[in-house]
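Good day; I would like, with your permission, to put a structural problem before you. What I wish to show you is a protein chain and, alongside it, a tokenised description of its three-dimensional fold. Please examine both parts with care and let me know of anything in them that strikes you as inconsistent. Thank you for your consideration; the sequence and its tokens are set out here:

***
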Amino acid sequence: MNRVFEEVEDESGAVARYRRHDNGRGFVSVKATAHPSAFIDATAYVENGAEIGANAWIGTGSWIDVDAFVGAGAFIGSNVHVGAKAQIGRSARVGSHSRIAAGMRVPDGARVGRDTRVTSGKRSVAKAA
């Protein structure tokens, strides 16, 4: 079985290498981990060092940045940016068009509304709804 890799060059000329995830066909860095049961949409990206847990859902156009963590059963809506080293807890839900800043934590079971910005001014999102 031959593995097909895709390379993407950024504006600085650096080339990143991705493979297509079997469930959803999303771009997963060769240096990232995505559980086979996770769904990663064909237009989503998972960067180096990121980890996607079992049964997680990564929506259309979403970007999981370097060293970020998305827990088992978490739902990431469309066009969401999960910043570098951010953590999305198990069964948490992040609404479409939201931005989770680098290093932020969304606890297990928490809900982040649509078009929400979780920034460095907040230590973490409020407890589960």
User: Anything to note?
Assistant: The domain at 20-118 is CATH 2.160.10.10 (UDP N-Acetylglucosamine Acyltransferase; domain 1). The CA atoms of residues 18 and 29 lie 4 Å apart.
